[in-house]
């Protein structure tokens, strides 16, 4: 079977593209390797998506999935391993099959960047987490560290402060970089402490290999060990695009280079959402990209007839 559009990723960008494609009567399917919703299922609360004053990321993902399913958009729970461009037909390769399509929309998002310090691998998911909403409840009445100072770090630290007895935020810059409202909420909390201009050197282990805390160095070269039961890292993102590396459509960091129509330099291949080179990675910009990609894919499909 030859699809009109195959979408890679069922996050906000991919599901929106699926909705727009189905409503345009296109033969469409979305591939998802984990769970529909993408990064928002790991987000405690979303307060800046128009129409929803405050909602958990999981709830918003559920609304998006219900909307997608209500239109019978097919979701294939398969990981895309490669996209092959053969001109008017593109191939999407998964471990289960190779699918043929006229258009591919890449909406594969990002994954959290890791610090890359000593003992991090050993403690990954056993003391170090990248998801406060998933793992935060394990640290009720305990002490945690949050690494980072941007919106994700600051918002998730505020959430963790409602559970943990103490949250220490470690930021390598001299100040937080999150928006002012998020900063105000965090700094108003009595159980939150900050270490600015400080870098994490390593995670400190106990005798049984458990997490004891982190060792940091500040800009004066002073070392300090901060005790904690858990650590949450929010230090940036890495695009998930290795499966299109042979297409030559990514920049040196792996982000998809797409124009304002979401077109890449390969005709019929579009990029949408966080995996694109872009200024603001948010739900509202991801959904917007998904819609724009489909509107332009429609024009491209007309040229094939
Ligand atoms: C901690 C945190 C808090 C945030 N808070 C907010 C907030 O308050 N407000 C806001 O607007 N935004 C927030 N964001 C950002 C928001 O989550 C993202 O901008 C949004 O999820 C991007 O959507 P996307 O569809 O582009 O990508 P993603 O949400 O990353 O979805 C991509 C999907 O593609 C799938 N995928 C990847 N590769 C493959 C493959 N090879 N095969 C099949 N499937 C694949 C992934 O499994 C994933 O489900 C936050 C992000 C984080 C990490």
From TrEMBL:
<keyword id="KW-0285">Flavoprotein</keyword>
<keyword id="KW-0676">Redox-active center</keyword>
<keyword id="KW-0274">FAD</keyword>
<keyword id="KW-1015">Disulfide bond</keyword>
<dbReference type="InterPro" id="IPR008255">
    <property type="entry name" value="Pyr_nucl-diS_OxRdtase_2_AS"/>
</dbReference>
<dbReference type="InterPro" id="IPR036188">
    <property type="entry name" value="FAD/NAD-bd_sf"/>
</dbReference>
<dbReference type="Pfam" id="PF07992">
    <property type="entry name" value="Pyr_redox_2"/>
</dbReference>
<keyword id="KW-0560">Oxidoreductase</keyword>
<dbReference type="GO" id="GO:0004791">
    <property type="term" value="F:thioredoxin-disulfide reductase (NADPH) activity"/>
</dbReference>
<feature type="domain" description="FAD/NAD(P)-binding">
    <location>
        <begin position="3"/>
        <end position="290"/>
    </location>
</feature>
<dbReference type="InterPro" id="IPR023753">
    <property type="entry name" value="FAD/NAD-binding_dom"/>
</dbReference>
<dbReference type="InterPro" id="IPR050097">
    <property type="entry name" value="Ferredoxin-NADP_redctase_2"/>
</dbReference>
<protein>
    <submittedName>
        <fullName>Thioredoxin reductase</fullName>
        <ecNumber>1.8.1.9</ecNumber>
    </submittedName>
</protein>
């Amino acid at each position: 079977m030859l699809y009109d559009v195959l979408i890679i990723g069922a996050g906000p960008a991919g599901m929106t593209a699926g909705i727009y494609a189905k409503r345009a009567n296109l033969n469409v399917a979305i591939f998802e390797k984990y769970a529909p919703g993408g990064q928002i299922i790991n987000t405690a609360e979303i307060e800046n998506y128009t129409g929803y004053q405050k909602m958990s990321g999981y709830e918003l993902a559920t609304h998006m999935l219900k909307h997608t399913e209500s239109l019978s958009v097919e979701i294939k729970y398969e990981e895309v391993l490669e996209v092959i461009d053969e001109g008017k037909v593109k191939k999407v390769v998964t471990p289960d099959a190779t699918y043929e399509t006229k258009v591919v929309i890449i909406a594969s998002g990002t994954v959290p960047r890791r610090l890359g310090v000593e003992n991090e691998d050993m403690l990954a998911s056993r003391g170090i987490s990248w998801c406060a909403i998933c793992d935060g409840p394990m640290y009720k009445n305990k002490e945690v560290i949050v690494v980072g100072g941007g919106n994700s770090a600051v918002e998730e630290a505020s959430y963790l402060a409602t559970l943990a007895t103490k949250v220490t935020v470690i930021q390598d810059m001299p100040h937080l970089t999150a928006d002012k409202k998020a900063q105000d909420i965090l700094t108003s909390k009595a159980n939150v402490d900050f270490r600015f201009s400080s870098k994490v050197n390593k995670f400190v282990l106990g005798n049984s290999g458990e997490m004891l805390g982190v060792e940091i160095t500040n800009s004066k070269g002073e070392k300090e060990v901060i005790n904690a039961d858990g650590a949450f890292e929010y230090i940036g993102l890495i695009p998930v695009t290795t499966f299109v590396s042979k297409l030559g459509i990514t920049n040196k960091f792996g982000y998809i280079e797409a124009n304002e129509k979401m077109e890449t330099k390969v005709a019929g291949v579009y990029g949408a959402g966080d995996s694109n080179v872009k200024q603001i990675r948010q739900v509202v910009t991801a959904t917007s990209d998904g819609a724009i990609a489909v509107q332009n894919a429609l024009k491209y499909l007309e040229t094939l007839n």
